[in-house]
Amino acid sequence: MRDRVGGPCRNFAxxxxxxxxxxxxxGGTQPARFKLMLAITPQMKILVATQPADFxxxxxxxxxxxxxxxxxxxxxxxxxxxRNRRKTAIxxxxxxxxxxxxxxxxxxxxxxxxxxxxxxxxxxxxxxHQLSVLFSAGNPERTGAAPDWRPVGPQA
Length: 156
Prior knowledge:
Shape: globular
Structural class: alpha+beta
Helix content: 10-25%
Radius of gyration: 20 Å
Number of strands: 5
Strand order of the largest sheet: 4-3-2-1-5
Largest sheet: 5 strands, mixed
Number of helices: 2
Distance between the termini: 69 Å
C-alpha cells in the first residue's frame, strides 16, 4: 500500500484487520469499523495534580509520580490530570483494567486560565463535567451544573 507521495504507507495495519481478524480486500485505506474511546463517567474519581509535571515523562514516569508524589494508586481507575509549567498543555492518565491511556492535549492558542492552587493539597478532585470544561481551557468552578449526586427522596 502506498501513501499520497508514493512511498510505503507506514500507518497501515497490514493485510488483516487486527481487531477483528478479518482480511481487508478493498482499495485505499482501511475503513474505520472500530472507534476506540475513553469514556469519563460521573462515577470516576478525577484528580488534578496541583504542581506542574515534566511533560517529557511517559506512562511509567507519570505512574511513578502518582505513587510517590500524589500518594495515589494509578491502577485503581482514577483519572489523573497534569499540566506543563507554561500551562499550554494537559496530560491525562487513566488505567482501564487492561492498560493505561495517556492523552495529551496542547492548546493551539492561549493557555489554561484556571488551575488549582498548590498550597492546599497535592491534588484537587473534579467532577466529570468539570473535566470537560477544563479540556476546553475553561474554569471548572464556574460551570453552574448540578452536583453529580444528590438525594432524590424527601428531606428528613
